[in-house]
TrEMBL record:
<feature type="transmembrane region" description="Helical">
    <location>
        <begin position="193"/>
        <end position="211"/>
    </location>
</feature>
<keyword id="KW-1133">Transmembrane helix</keyword>
<feature type="transmembrane region" description="Helical">
    <location>
        <begin position="6"/>
        <end position="24"/>
    </location>
</feature>
<feature type="transmembrane region" description="Helical">
    <location>
        <begin position="340"/>
        <end position="360"/>
    </location>
</feature>
<keyword id="KW-0472">Membrane</keyword>
<feature type="transmembrane region" description="Helical">
    <location>
        <begin position="282"/>
        <end position="304"/>
    </location>
</feature>
<feature type="transmembrane region" description="Helical">
    <location>
        <begin position="162"/>
        <end position="181"/>
    </location>
</feature>
<feature type="transmembrane region" description="Helical">
    <location>
        <begin position="223"/>
        <end position="243"/>
    </location>
</feature>
<feature type="transmembrane region" description="Helical">
    <location>
        <begin position="316"/>
        <end position="334"/>
    </location>
</feature>
<feature type="transmembrane region" description="Helical">
    <location>
        <begin position="36"/>
        <end position="58"/>
    </location>
</feature>
<feature type="transmembrane region" description="Helical">
    <location>
        <begin position="130"/>
        <end position="150"/>
    </location>
</feature>
<feature type="transmembrane region" description="Helical">
    <location>
        <begin position="94"/>
        <end position="118"/>
    </location>
</feature>
<feature type="transmembrane region" description="Helical">
    <location>
        <begin position="255"/>
        <end position="276"/>
    </location>
</feature>
<keyword id="KW-0812">Transmembrane</keyword>
<protein>
    <submittedName>
        <fullName>Uncharacterized protein</fullName>
    </submittedName>
</protein>
Length: 372
């Protein structure tokens, strides 16, 4: 039954994503705020919850998480040694709420604010449209999270978690609509695009680090992920500083169409993203792949049709083939969680596409100069 509902969610979210976002207006947003700041707040709360959960396990269950780890797949509940900290709490039994309940509420804003942050870096129009999709996205994500919650149900918290996730699905879009803010940023050139790619890759690495060390209750993994997280943070900060200083430069028709397609992909992929991701791991890989390809094709069509100048179909076709040729090996060679392998594949795909488009645009520009 769960797989059937997940399949229906993938199909309905994909149909909605292909049909509706193009109707959204690109007009200024009300409110003031930055999703990156709220993402940082959510991450701090997630790690605080992990510390309190660890205190609970040490004080109430004598450091043994077996009472709950038996209900989840391997790779969860690697507890950290907090030294004397667990002894500081007079009534650790009250911290039982830190088991799944708090993270059930925080997981949705963690995903939503992360996605909106990437959209804001990419383009003002993409960000505004994504913010206007936050209600359908929150509904789709909440239903998907609840399905996975039920697949991993346990006698301790499942019913409460479902209710908390439903509450989060209402609070988060209200939160976003009030503190959405606006941005004037836009990706207009090859340097802009490369800096965006570096920023998104670094943020993706940090999101995976939080997922592994906190959302899976593996606070013991923090020493292992900390050096990589520090490097990713430094790279991210540097990329965003440089992105503010880059001046607009020339952009060929191929890159213009690619950038426009990337902007539309960020919008179109927003609603079905989570359902497609879990479809890959919960028995619906073929349907998830078809949905993902449909979303990409729709974004490419919007980007090519609305890009200024000529439509470089041959150039884009070669670029896409190069991207696919790199994405496949990257996915197969990458290790770790499915999200890490998908991130590697996406980065490799974009690297191939950008390289071919930039090279082809340069050849076209050189040929145009010689013809004069």
């Amino acid at each position: 039954m769960g797989r059937l509902v997940l399949g229906a969610m993938i199909v309905s979210a994909t149909v909605f994503a292909v049909w509706y976002p193009r109707r959204l207006p690109d007009t200024p947003l009300r409110g003031r705020g930055n999703p990156a700041c709220w993402l940082l707040v959510v991450i701090v709360l997630i790690y605080l919850n992990q510390v309190l959960f660890t205190v609970y396990v040490y004080r109430v269950h004598h450091g043994d998480a077996g009472f709950i780890s038996r209900y989840v797949p391997p790779g969860w509940f690697d507890l950290a040694d907090l030294g004397p900290i667990p002894g500081w709490f007079p009534d650790p039994g009250l911290l039982s709420v830190c088991l799944f309940r708090v993270s059930s509420f925080l997981e949705l804003p963690f995903v939503i604010f992360g996605y909106l942050t990437v959209c804001r870096w990419l383009d003002a129009g993409a960000y505004r449209r994504a913010v206007r999709l936050v209600w359908p996205a929150s509904i789709a994500y909440t239903i998907t999270f609840c399905l996975i919650e039920w697949e991993l149900r346990n006698p301790w918290t499942t019913v409460q978690d479902l209710l908390i996730r439903a509450a989060s699905g209402i609070v988060v879009p209200l939160w976003v609509s009030r503190f959405a803010g606006d941005t004037g940023g836009r990706t207009r050139s090859l340097p802009d695009l490369l800096l965006f790619l570096v920023s998104a890759g670094a943020l993706g690495w940090l999101v995976l680090a939080v997922y592994d060390s906190a959302l899976l209750y593996n606070l013991g993994h923090v020493p292992a992920v900390l050096p990589g997280a520090a490097i990713a943070t430094a790279v991210l900060v540097l990329a965003r500083v440089l992105a503010r200083r880059v001046r607009d430069g020339p952009c060929g028709s191929g890159l213009a169409a690619l950038i426009r397609s990337a902007e539309w992909l960020a919008v179109v992929f927003f609603v079905p993203a989570l359902a497609i991701r879990y479809g890959l791991n919960f028995g619906l890989p073929a349907l998830a792949v078809v949905a993902g390809v449909t979303v990409v094709v729709a974004a490419l069509a919007l980007g090519i049709l609305r890009a200024p100048g000529r439509a470089p179909l041959g150039e884009l076709a070669a670029a896409l083939l190069a991207g696919v040729a790199l994405a496949g090996p990257a996915y197969l060679l990458a290790s770790g969680y499915p999200e890490a392998r998908l991130l590697a594949a996406v980065m490799a795909f974009l690297a191939g596409v950008i390289t071919v488009c930039a090279f082809a645009d340069r050849r076209v520009a050189r040929g145009a100069r010689l013809d004069r």
